[in-house]
Amino acid sequence: MIMIVLAAVLCSCGQEEKEPVQLISQGTAVSSVPSDQDEGMEVMLIGQAAPRATWTLRFTDGDGNPVKGVVVNVCDDSACTPYRSDDTGTVSFSGKPFEWDVHILSVPAPYTFDLTQAFKTELNGGEMTFVLDK
Predict the structure, then answer these.
(1) In angstroms, rounded to a whole number, what is the distance separating the alpha carbons of residues 97 and 95?
(2) How far apart are the first and last CA of the chain?
(3) What confidence category does residue 48 fall into, taking pLDDT thresholds of 50, 70 and 90?
(4) Which of 7, 63, 73, 79 is the most buried if burial means most Cβ atoms within 10 Å?
(5) Are 10 and 74 in the same domain?
(6) Own/partner pairs for 118-124, CB < 8 Å, 24+ apart?
C-alpha cells in the first residue's frame, strides 16, 4: 500500500488569514490549507512511490524444458541492460511501466533462434515465453 502524504506551503501575501480546511489522506487529517485557493499556495505529494511493474521472460525448448544461458538485452529509449536466463530458463526485471524492447543476443548450443527479431513487452508488466529450436 502506498501512503500519500500531502504538505501545503502557504503564503499570506498580505491577505487576511482564512478558515483552514483539512487535507485528508486515508481518513486522517494530515495538514490544513486556507478554504479558498490563494496564488501563493502550493500542494506537493511527498514520499509517493513511482509506479513499478515486473516482467518475466521464459526461454524453453520445443518440449517446454527451460533453457539456461540465453542472453537478452532489455532496452528503453536511452539504454539497454543485458540479462542471462537462470536454471529455470527465466529472466525477471522490474521498472517503470514501459513497453521495453527485448533483443535476444545469444542462445546456448545446441539451440537456435532468429537473433534479428525484436520484441516489445506489455506496458504494465507480464510474461513472455520464447521457444528455442534444437
Answers:
(1) 6
(2) 45
(3) confident
(4) 73
(5) no
(6) 121/55, 121/74, 122/55, 123/53, 123/97, 123/98, 123/99, 124/53, 124/97
Range of 39's domain? 5-46
d(CA 85, CA 62): 17
pLDDT-above-70 percentage for the chain? 65
> Per-residue b/e over 24-54, b at no fewer than 16 CB within 10 Å?
eeeeeebbebbeeeeeeeeeeeeeeeeeebe
Cell of 58: 521464459
**Whether residue 73 sits in one domain with residue 124:** yes
Mean pLDDT (the chain) is 79
The answer on 57 and 42 residing in a single domain is no
The three cell numbers of residue 45 are: 505529494
Domain match, 65 and 19 both: no
Amino acid at 34: P
CATH number at residue 85: 2.60.40.10
Stretch 85-94: mean pLDDT:
98
